[in-house]
Design goal:
It is built from 18 helices and no strands. It has 400 residues and is mostly helical.
């Protein structure tokens, strides 16, 4: 009976969600071929410190989150989301050759920021498209499916990167060139495979950031943004998972497999937990996700042995599957339909600033006090977020 229900939910998910999922998968193959290797490239080839890695990763991710406010608001104002989504994916694809050409940290930073700029441009309009396309009772499942397919790409990308590193004797730059191919395929699929729904392609609307429009977002939305920001402070860049794996002593070419393990578990759990979020308390599920992240941080702080690191990374993947689609669904549930792009934009702006701060602090602690201190600090932030989740009640947050 449960299996039949599972297949029924999948069969009811509209084609557009599947297209966006496979586009995300292809782009993640492209991006993760680079990102899984980039911390190692910066440290071993360009001589970067952990603080430099944290700063570059934090600036890049913050750029992606901050830009989402503008693209999301613009998509609401125009009532059109596909064109911005295509532009964002195309920009990210065209940055891939810069990584292959980089001889300095400055060029890596430029490439990383431009890549995340593309992510920022596409992120809010894409999430708003999913909310526009998906039926309300399948919203969690739709976000979970998109996230699951995205994470399949995050599994395949590092695997392909590792295989090519072994084949080409640790030639980072050659692998970075190959990453261009799946990115181009993603852009082509989006252009020719997705038809924008009529509800998102209507006439121009009033300025979404006018005061009277922003007031319509309400206290429930403010609560979701606050929780999302605290959550992001507790979860710094995944580049530090790669650096922790490097300390385990495994061959350099195999270090990206840590991201394969994390993303494999993330992919396997994203859709089931997304579907579960359509039936249970979002606050309770988010609390469980924070508990799993605390466990992951404590395990990663304990030891750098490869088996311990793998266990911590696996828990990190479970936490991602439990929470990432859930946070997107929570925003959709509290935002008016015509302000969804703006709602995702502001949400990601706040989370972007939090990610920048978290990654800089993580890098500082790593260099000054050692790797364990970074993960202990992450666990402490998680505990504070977990307490806030229940100490400050939601303002009639709508479960469905």
């Amino acid at each position: 009976m449960q299996t039949a229900k599972h297949h029924s939910a999948l069969s009811r998910i509209p084609k557009g969600i599947w297209v966006l999922g496979f586009v995300s998968m292809l782009m993640d193959i492209s991006s993760e071929m680079i990102h899984a290797l980039l911390p190692l490239f910066m440290v071993t080839t360009l001589g970067a410190s952990a603080v430099a890695v944290g700063l570059i990763e934090g600036l890049a991710e913050a750029t992606a989150q901050i830009v989402k406010i503008f693209s999301g608001t613009l998509s609401d104002y125009l009532g059109k989301r596909k064109a911005l989504t295509v532009f964002g994916y195309a920009l990210a694809t065209l940055t891939k050759p810069l990584f292959a050409l980089a001889a300095t940290l400055e060029l890596v930073l430029t490439a990383r920021v431009l890549d995340r700029l593309g992510k920022g441009i596409r992120g809010a309009p894409r999430d708003a498209l999913i909310a526009d396309i998906a039926p309300a009772d399948l919203r969690g499942a739709a976000f979970g499916l998109r996230q699951a397919l995205d994470t399949v790409g995050a599994v395949l990308g590092p695997l392909l990167g590792v295989a090519l590193m072994l084949l080409w004797a640790n030639d980072f730059r050659a692998v970075f060139w190959v990453a261009l191919i799946p990115g181009l395929a993603a852009v082509a699929m989006l252009i020719f495979g997705l038809q924008e729904p009529q509800s998102a392609a209507g006439e121009k609307r009033s300025n979404p950031i006018r005061r009277e429009n922003l007031r319509r977002l309400g206290p429930a939305y403010t609560w979701v943004v606050a929780i999302g920001a605290m959550f992001t402070l507790a979860r710094f860049s995944e580049a530090f998972l790669v650096l922790r794996a490097q300390q385990s002593g495994i061959p350099l070419a195999l270090v990206p497999l840590v991201m394969v393990a994390m993303n494999l578990i993330y992919s396997l759990t994203a859709y089931p937990f997304g579907k579960l979020s359509d039936r249970m308390s979002h606050r309770s599920l988010l609390a469980l996700g924070l508990g799993v992240l605390i466990a992951a941080d404590l395990v990663l702080a304990k030891d750098a042995h490869w088996s311990v690191v793998l266990a911590g990374v696996a828990l990190w993947g479970v936490h991602m599957g439990m929470t990432q689609g859930l946070l997107a669904a929570m925003v959709a549930n509290v935002a008016p339909t015509d302000l969804r792009g703006t709602a995702y934009g502001f949400f990601n702006l706040v989370c972007g600033v939090a990610m920048l701060l978290a990654s800089i602090v993580a890098g500082f602690l790593w260099d000054k006090f050692g790797a364990a201190s970074t993960f202990y600090a992450g666990a402490a932030f998680c505990a504070a977020t977990l307490a806030s989740l229940f100490l400050h009640p939601a303002e009639k947050y709508p479960q469905q």
